[in-house]
């Protein structure tokens, strides 16, 4: 990642009613890969016992709690407060990207509006998150796929993180088509494509994170599909669709 990318200013907006406090440390670590979270806000009715787990987290990670009372029984007013703040930040031009933490599809129109202005939008939510919100983001990551640093050392077998097998991956028509399109678009006359170029093409096509399929890296996921040849040369990884290998 280049210097300018690292310094991208990102607004971290958390829908505390629909996000787990236990995952905020790994979410912040992930946001740090894309830039600096210079705005950190969490929205909710902080008088509710439901948000008790968030109290210590807010202080530890310097997240500003935004109080939002529920004006109607059974209605969550935090969504509207988040949208208003996001638009204020957009017009103020004080950030270059947004990280939205929620499993609520109601934020889909907001994401689409931010993208229209050229903003990168990184979404984080649980696997129950509806597809429209997932697909709208520049990149969406399921929080179950973000592992605590100590989890790897425990040796525990986490079923959520277990990689999908080749057969299951190949049965995912959308995934296969996306990978093949990206490799084809990034390839030269010989059919070989640089993995970095493939990743860029995928980023332009759709919201994507290999960890959502149980793989830490794109190269591991491509390997697992068994649909592509993979060649490693020093620090470079090249990929070619096996259907073109005979040409």
Order of neighbouring strands in the sheet with most strands: 3-2-1-4-5-6
Structural class: alpha/beta
SSE arrangement, N to C: HEHEHEHEHEHEHHHEHHEE
Give the C-alpha Rg. 20 Å
Largest sheet: number of strands, sense, barrel closure: 6 strands, parallel
What is the total tally of β strands?
9
Distance between the termini: 35 Å
Beta-strand content = 15-25%
Helical fraction equals 25-40%
Shape: elongated
Helical region count?
A: 11
Q: What is the overall pLDDT average?
A: 83
Low-confidence stretches: 1-6, 150-161
Describe this structure in words.
By secondary structure, this protein is of the alpha/beta class. The chain has eleven helices and nine strands. The strands form two sheets. The chain has a six-stranded parallel β-sheet with strand order 3-2-1-4-5-6, sandwiched between helices. A three-stranded antiparallel β-sheet has the order 7-9-8. α9 (173-186) packs across α10. The model is unreliable at 1-6 and 150-161 (pLDDT under 50).
Task: Set out the fold topology.
Layout: H1 3-6, E1 9-15, H2 24-32, E2 36-44, H3 54-60, E3 64-67, H4 78-92, E4 97-101, H5 108-116, E5 120-125, H6 131-136, E6 139-142, H7 151-154, H8 166-170, H9 173-186, E7 193-194, H10 195-205, H11 218-225, E8 228-233, E9 236-241
Parallel strand pairs: 1-2, 1-4, 2-3, 4-5, 5-6
Antiparallel strand pairs: 7-9, 8-9
Task: Write a short abstract of this structure.
The chain is of the alpha/beta class and 247 residues long. 37% of the residues lie in helices and 20% in strands.
Question: Key features?
Answer:
alpha/beta; three-stranded antiparallel beta sheet; 9 strands; 20% strand
